[in-house]
Design a protein that fits this description.
This protein is mainly α. It has a single domain, classed as Arp2/3 complex 21 kDa subunit ARPC3 (Orthogonal Bundle). The protein contains eight helices and two strands; from the N terminus they run H-H-E-E-H-H-H-H-H-H. Strands 1-2 form a two-stranded antiparallel ribbon. A hairpin with a 2-residue loop joins strand 1 and strand 2. The longest helix has 28 residues. The chain starts with 9 loop residues before the first helix and ends in a 14-residue tail after the last helix.
Length: about 210
Amino acid sequence: MHLADGVLPIPTLVGGFAISGAWIAASARNLAAEDMPRIGVMSAAFFVASLLPIPLGPVSVHFLLHGLVGIILGGRAFIAISLGLALQALQFGHGGVASLGVNACLMGIPACLVGWAYQGLAREKSARFRAGLAALLTAFAVALSAILAALALLSGGESFREVAAALLIAHVPIMAIEAAVAASVVSFLQKVKPEMLGCPLESAGS
């Protein structure tokens, strides 16, 4: 899902930095001290999960966990994902520095959307419902990121059409695996640390 430098046209790169910069500024506006540990932990989880890529031309296929990051952090997910991507690009050359803004948008925006959807739909629901919802939303996050990445590639010209199609297909199994992981993690957190999920369970049947 990480797009490398030299693949995208300059207008797309500039647009990525503009959108990601504005989103980070908005997310950090009311950032509290108690938010920092969770952001750090989830940024590290994202960093590790997406560090080992399976090369596919100018892109890579790998686990993301950005949907789960969104479920736990909500709108703060963009900050955690941007930090993880920046460290990967600077330390390991994973992705690219020039494409960092675009990559942050590709994964940060779906993560935030998933987080907001989860907070809105999971409130006062049963544990089973919330686990299933987490699975569906996590799969959606992977699919949306793949679609956005494909569109970004197509902005570079028709020569990337086959790569964009391959990117979409390659992420189908990732959707299924990450959905199962998210359901398991959410089920576990509901038992040991439900406050990390940010909304109460049903008083009965949970």
